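quick one, 297 residues, struct below
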Amino acid sequence: MTDNNSAWNPDEDYQYPLIMSGAGPFKYPDREDVDSVLPFVDLAVVGSITKLPRKGNTPLHEKARLEYFEDPAYTINVHGMPNEGMHAIGPPRSPKLIISLAEFSVDGFVEIYEHFAEWGAGTELNFGCPNTTEGIWCRKPESMDAVLSQITPRSGLTGVKLSPFLEEEYSLLQEGLAVIKQHSSKISYVVATNTLPGQTVTLSDGSSAVETVEMGTQGGLGGEAIKELALENATVCCQELGGDVGVLLCGGVSSGKDLIKGLDVGCVGVQVVSAFLQQGPRVFKKIREEYLRSLLA
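---
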């Protein structure tokens, strides 16, 4: 197993490897539901939050779902980042919280980043949300560069979350990573990856797993179904960033074995989302215990 602890920000007092809960399950940062994971994780990401209030996507009919995670093979969601807007967010409930931020313009990203500059343990720029009609930011390297050029480095962590890229798209991923590496003095970590956009799942009863007015039957696919794709993306991120920025594996992580696979390609830790939705907070304890047992084997 590769100890790539040097890739993590040496100025921050976080253990290696880092185990985090990812953005999504905790959409409202000031609500008590996030308390359930805090005893089990190093850090927890809440949001995403946008500058203005956002209602999210609209169910196509009264029985339509915005998420489905009952199958252990995958999760799919199409929430579209509902939130109350940045001015409705109070102080963090815990110093272990990171707030995920999303916007749809360069100026919007810069403004919301500066607004939360001293919030909690840090901020995570969501450049990879799959479930909006405004497009996916990590597929626009020049826009990422414009944002990262204008933000002011903060005392806490600053993360960037990316959408997954298929193998034939790696040149675009590498272009985006070159932008991130150029701004490595401002970026603490990169998350590879968010959910896979534009996916449709049909359930055994013939209904679509998710259905919305804005996205139809398409949603962001996560969990076990994207495990290999996420690991491949994380591998590319580690290779391209070369230790200048820490990389967190996210996508199908549910065991100590998955954590070890991430560490072996150079990651400094993991984010867990789907397994938490399916198994609850105990999955974080399970991952850490399995990892620690592997060290003694």
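Helices lie at 106-115, 141-150, 170-182, 227-241, 256-264, 274-279, 282-296.
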